[in-house]
Design a protein that fits this description.
Length: 616
Amino acid sequence: MLSQLQTIDIVVLVLMLAIMPMAGIIIALRKKTAEDYFLAGRTIRWWAVAGSVFGTNISSFHLIGMLGIGYSIGFVQAHYEIVFPAILLLCFVFLGSYRRLDVFTLSQYLEVRYNDKARLLYTILLILIILVQLVGSFYVGSITLQWLFGGTGFEMSYATGLLLIGLITCSYTIWGGMESIVVTDTIQTVMMLAAGTAVAYFTLSQPEIGGFTGLLHLDAAQPRALQKMHLYLPSNHPNLPWTGIFTGLLLQHCFNFSTNQFLVQRVLAANSDADARRGVIASGFLKLTIPFFSISAGVAAYYLFRARFGEMDFIRMSAQSDNAFLKLVETVIPHGTGLVGMILAGLTAATFSSVDSMMNAATTLLTVDVYQKYVNPKASDKQIVGFGRLMIVVMVLASIGLALWTYTPDRTNNFMLKVSAQLSYFTPGIMVAFFLGILWRGASARAAVIAMAAAPFYGVLVEFIYNNFLGTNATVAAIFGTNLNFMHRVFLTFVLSLTTLIALSRTLFPNRSSEGFERLRVSINAGQLARAVGLFLALQSIFIGLIILGGISPKSVAVWAALATFGLFFLHKRSTTEELPALNIGQNTARFGHDGDLLWAGLLTGASIWVLYYFA
């Protein structure tokens, strides 16, 4: 816990936190149509899309947890922030179709492509996913607020923390809708980045560390097995196996950025296709900063605490890695400057950033896909907005009630958090329905519904078979571990769901009408996408071959691999354009220029590739 806050910290904290509800309430004073309320009138500019997407992705526990994992495990956690494949998939495959259909929800998209049963099933699954995540966010948010403000004069009970989160988020989401959320998310993003950057700067500036390069030298001086600034762990690692990172985790990124309502809703609300693309790409750059100010600060904290504190204190702190953040704030942040107040404000803002987005997404699904579809198809804008506001209150009360009911004193044994961690059982089937729906006209509605419904059962089945049979084999366990990692399970479930949809579409339930597929007006096909991915993988295989066969260090090829990857985005001739889907934007072929979207997509991809090689 932090020591008593000084007056300047309290002033900074209160002023910064007051900005959020004030900004949201000011926007809420405007009159709202249904489109204004749920999609901000489709007027969001790219910078607001970026801030809102980033804010939706990040919570206070996320930032603190990232630093804690950097402290205990290392830089490998950065894979959760390297999301360029998912961003490219959204920007240059899905985005054009989503926006051309002018839909409010992704379930409406599935109804166009398949039928109303696919729409309803997606709505049910997403409401379940969002509700569980919302309860988990309330639970962790309240625990985190207790933890952050313990010993500061702002101590609060668990129930008070829940009510505070509910009241503050409701103050601007009920009346302002999506526009208020986007504005507050952007403010929260600035506050989170400021807090994280301040902690990283003062941590890396300590004489025991010597800056980021000093951290790299300090880590390199350790035996290889003890080094932390690397991105790849063995395939049998229980938490972050490299094989799972490039399979299941990659698919999870694709779900979050391409088929998840509460993130894609920002894309639907953008002012134009260009604003949507640039905003999502910019959010990718923002996410790429997290390894350098959060995870690397955790690694630096490990070496700092080991050097500065006694062996017994270091061992005790290492057993509670999540406490590394507050210990850093107490140790390295100058007091009496207001910086402690600013950091607490940033982390408190992060507590609200994901909650408000999930609430808005859930109420949009309930209002558009249930109320307007089945209860009152002729509802006026006033009735639709009124029902949406009512659903926010219902979702908040339900979340607080479940968070109180499932309360346990520590985060590690909470039932609801364990359930939240298992939501990846549902996502592979959803991804299959979306991916094949947009890339293959042969995908049928009945097959898609069955694949989505079967995915959770496939997940349970493959986990049971592996843990009880395959994992007991010494050879298999040596490669993939004794228990099936969730990333491997997601990948296997995806393959089974994909096989199910293809097999049923080709046999029992063929797609007899291509009307739904034609309405999507997809700019690319599966062959083009496969050739683009193949070209990318072929290029990377050259550099990987140089590392494995030529004995060249990954650091030596990192820059060249990044530049070569970036160079792919300059292939703009007609013949190359037909091969690279990334060069097909909307209905027109993009003319690549220095101010074009592909430049930024290429920069993001190249920067990500550099990270993947340099920290191998």
